[in-house]
Amino acid sequence: MSKLLYRGKTKDVFAEEPSGLFDRVRFVFTDRVTLNDEGVIDPGGNNVAEKPVVGQAEACLKMTSAIFRELSEKGFATHLVSYDLAGLSMIVKKAKLFSPGLEWVGRWVSTGSFVRRYSSVPSCRDGFRLPSPIWEITLKDDSAGDPLIVPSAITALGIMDSVTLEKLLAANDQVMRALHDMFSARRLDLWDIKIEWGLDGDDQPMLIDEVSPGSCRAFKEGTRERVTGLALAEYFTTRS
Length: 240
Description:
The chain is of the alpha+beta class. It has two domains: about 5-95, Phosphorylase Kinase, domain 1 (2-Layer Sandwich), CATH 3.30.200.20; about 100-235, 2-Layer Sandwich (D-amino Acid Aminotransferase, Chain A, domain 1), CATH 3.30.470. The chain is built from five helices and 13 strands. Strands 8, 9, 10, 11, 12 and 13 form a six-stranded antiparallel beta sheet that branches. The protein has a five-stranded antiparallel beta sheet with strand order 1-2-3-7-6. A two-stranded antiparallel ribbon has the order 4-5. The model has no long low-confidence stretch (mean pLDDT about 90).
């Protein structure tokens, strides 16, 4: 049996050494979901719900594998090697990570933590469509509430050098726009999404982790009807 390396909020990470794949790890998706401090299911939440959502693992793997394949076809690097829907697992390339970890958030409509953070600004209300998208970077630090960090602080604190940061900022801008276009092509209104980046063996940006119903908010185009779970994943199993 593969060795458990890490148990995350929504998936588990196993070593692939028994197969001799020292540069690979295996993600096993689970039905665990995250909640915000109010106890509501929230992609940006730091609390794991006691009760899992049946089908969440299948939805996350289906959507992640489909999006990673499509991004790869568009010329963007991801860590996906292969996936097994029956086993709810995905083999991925090991990535060079940053310490502390970083999460990259794209926002087109204000909601969730963005509204709570800027509640003193009259225009910042739930559902307010932003004049232009906003890219945010947060530290992966649950105890501190995943605080925002600005690019100059990333380099000043030695999390990465300026050359690497510039590469990541450029890649993130391109991928965020590509993701938004992919949702729009499926008549989905993407409000916000959270992704992660690592570096490949040549220190080039590589999209990692997952892009799934558990990391975004999307609505049927022109409505306030949110699409979640397997229903959202199904939009990506058939190409537009």
